[in-house]
Amino acid sequence: MSKDYNKYFIKPSIKDARKRINNDTQTIDFNEYFNIKGFGEGKTYALETFGCQGNEADSETISGILESLKFKKSDSLEHADLILLNTCAIRENAENRVFGELGRLKKYKRNNPDLILGVCGCMPQEEKVVEKIMKHVPQVDLVFGTHNIYKLPEYLETVILSKERVIEVYSEEGSIVENLPKIRENARKAWVNIMFGCDEFCTYCIVPYTRGKERSRDPKAIIDEVNELIAEGYQEVTLLGQNVNSYGRDFIDRSYSFANLLEDLSKLPIPRVRFTTSHPKDFDFKTVDVIAKGGNLMPYIHLPVQSGSNEVLKRMNRKYTRESYLELIHYIYESIPSVSITTDIIVAFPGETEAQFEETLDLVRQCHFEGAYTFIFSKREGTPAYHYEDLLTFEEKKSRLHKLNKVVNEGFYGGTKRFEGKIVDVLVDGVSKNNDKVLAGYTENNKLINFTGDQSLIGKIVKVKVTEAMTWFLRGELIE
Ligand code: SAH
Ligand code: SF4
Ligand code: F3S
Fold first, then answer.
1. What is the pLDDT at residue 11?
2. Which residues of 187-197 are buried (b: 16+ CB within 10 A; e: fewer)?
3. What is the Rg, in whole angstroms, of the alpha carbon atoms belonging to the chain?
4. Using one digit for the tens of pLDDT, what is the confidence trace for 290-302?
């Protein structure tokens, strides 16, 4: 394959990605924009997804576009004609994993020179990554970012038919593209994007640079999508956004908030509505009140706190305090007594003292979190915290993570233990990972539960009595 890329060669710039221009977001219709051609006929693809639910949702769109072009999903990486890696840039180890995988995939390219190898998602939004790929992994034929997935057909046309390499990454987001085709991974549970991008600029985080300005989807487009999912038999939707609580803030012609959206969705005949991720700064009491009405709004809230120290929160640019976070948590517990709350925490943020770390441990105990994703701070080039002085040794950082995880695990166990003896509603997902005679599903509070039952129950919501609480999951007995 030729390595020219005359037609498509746009590299990203983290500096440009920081800009926020206050223009109104345009919406384009994929169907009008692109005339799908069947040049994938007879070819197969494999797609590997790294990172968050946003990327999982994007991968469903990528599969949708590929299958519209008549590509078929390959049964293995080895036999695929096209391999795409949809990547995550959130921490250094996430990026290392992708470079490791690219190294591993080189051999397939050696065996099959016609194999097309592509990298997309958040990593290509960083100029450093694109330069590294160009220099060290010349086997990659196609690089595009998070803002131009809808242009995949023309990129593939260029790579396959013109045999030219394509590198095209936009640093600034353009429009919202509606009516993109999707092949959803799950037949009962669906991701629904309600917004794109992030305007928070937490000082450690790369996402505002890789995903661009915050743009909310039209409520009607969201409600229409959920109605279509209902017609297809879906039982659960998870609304996606980096800060769902700021949904609608960018509308210039109307006032419509996340609470309004939840209220409207609560009227639709779908059994379960979930959402992620919430930001404590923007989670208003009105939204809590709407969730407290119950119905199809599930009693589960993921509310990342990041740190329990006001000084650290300030340096992270989180724009709330320990006190305001605790006030919100108390209001949630008071209003929704059955709720399960989980969180994200970063340890060893530059300058975090032992006393400030202890404040985080104390806050975790006070909040009764029923789970947490915990991370050691990872330096991301282009973010303000990249330049903050980082004095702790790796051993000290690991020791803080270890101490935190001990407290977090007590919370996990407390969160399953409280359900022992209770009857819970379970959406049956499939058979258990470890035993195909056992069914697995999730409760309303998002707890994994295993129980014996017939496979015909998959996709249904059933009542199960909890018989035993383990740290990470429940065991139960089907009661109807
Ligand atoms: N938008 C969401 C999630 C963002 S990424 C939110 O605001 O909560 C998921 C988690 O990764 C974050 O909550 C944070 O805990 C962690 N994270 C983000 N950047 C990080 C970094 N540079 N180092 C370590 N953890 C990080
Ligand atoms: Fe990153 Fe903060 Fe935006 Fe979450 S809210 S994506 S942590 S910048
Ligand atoms: Fe990773 Fe991008 Fe999501 S950096 S966490 S895949 S928004």
1. 84
2. ebbbbbbbbbb
3. 23
4. 999 999 999 999 9
Contact 242 CB / ligand 2 (< 6 Å): yes
In the block, tokens 């915990």 appear at 374
| Residue 197 contacts residue 54 (beta carbons within 8 Å) | no
Which two tokens mark 248?
């609608």
For 285, 434, 460, 469, 475, the CA distances from 449, given in Å and listed in that order, are 31, 13, 14, 9, 6
Compute CA 90 distance to the chain's CA centroid, rounded to the nearest angstrom: 11
pTM of the predicted model, to two decimals?
A: 0.96
Helices (H), 76-126: 92-111
Ligand nearest to the CA of 242: 1
The CA distances from residue 211 to 99, 101, 250, in Å, are 21, 23, 16
Average pLDDT on 15-22 reads 81
> Which atom of ligand 2 is nearest to 242's Cα?
6
375 lines ligand 1 (CB under 6 A): yes
CA 7 – CA 20 distance, rounded (Å): 28
Tell me the angle at which helices 322-335 and 354-367 cross, rounded to the nearest 10 degrees.
10
Domains and CATH numbers, the chain: 9-168 (3.40.50.12160), 186-417 (3.80.30.20), 423-478 (2.40.50.140)
Q: How far is 336 from 327, CA to CA, in rounded Å?
A: 14
- Residue of 209, 131, 116 lying closest to 165 (CA atoms): 116
Closest ligand 2 atom number to CA of residue 205: 1
